[in-house]
User: Which sequence fits this backbone?
DNA sequence: CACCCGATTATCT
DNA sequence: GATAATCGGGTGT
């Protein structure tokens, strides 16, 4: 089941936490062939508004961050460190002006061959384990800023699904911690990570996640 | 494995 | 002119 817009209308940190175990889906036209890329979301962070000095929205609306102030269920994609893109989904409760969830890591499921090409690596355990890396693996760039993933009429090539081999087992827990890569707002525990309870249920996965969890 | 550092450029002040 | 919600390569343990 594809997540609808209403899913993203809640406190940002709650959406961030609940996205763990969901599946990022991306269809891409690769030399005329329609290819599917998917991955289980294993790490997220929430970024708020005036309550959160680490958030791009903290000081108000600018050209870069305007998506964070817009409709929930749209993407906020920004360029960072001269090289990388970071994928966020706008999420906030109705009475909040801005907020988004940063997708920090996924576990690759489908389209791994194509991800390797986009990442220019054969190392499967290094494909999508970081915000810059997963944007590269899924070929997500600033072109996708403001893309609406909350309504299939507006786009049918990037969205999030509620079903996956992992979420079906429900054999994972979500742990929280402080966010990383920031210098302010370091007290907030708005980083969420998937940890599996029973590794034997996850042998169909082959990448970094298993070695990290064991 | 842990830490350190340089790359590289859009965006903001 | 400075900074950045990162990454990968290098060095040392």
Assistant:
């Amino acid at each position: 089941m594809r997540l609808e817009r209403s899913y993203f209308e809640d406190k940002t940190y709650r959406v961030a936490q609940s996205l763990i175990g969901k599946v990022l889906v991306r269809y891409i036209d690769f030399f005329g062939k329609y290819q599917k890329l998917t991955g289980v979301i294993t790490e997220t962070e929430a970024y708020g508004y005036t309550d959160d000095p680490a958030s791009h929205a903290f000081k108000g609306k600018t050209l870069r961050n305007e998506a964070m102030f817009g409709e929930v269920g749209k993407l906020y994609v920004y360029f960072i460190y001269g090289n990388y893109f970071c994928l966020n989904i706008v999420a906030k409760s109705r009475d909040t002006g801005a907020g988004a969830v940063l997708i920090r890591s996924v576990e690759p499921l489908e389209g791994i061959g194509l991800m390797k090409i986009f990442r220019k690596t054969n190392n499967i355990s290094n494909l999508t384990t970081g915000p810059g890396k997963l944007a590269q693996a899924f070929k997500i760039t600033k072109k996708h800023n403001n893309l609406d993933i909350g309504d299939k009429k507006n786009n049918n090539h990037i969205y999030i699904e509620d079903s996956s081999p992992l979420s079906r087992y429900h054999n994972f827990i979500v742990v929280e911690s402080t966010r990383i890569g920031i210098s302010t707002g370091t007290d907030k525990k708005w980083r969420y990570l998937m940890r599996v309870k029973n590794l034997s249920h996850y042998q169909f996965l082959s990448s970094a996640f298993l070695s990290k969890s064991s």
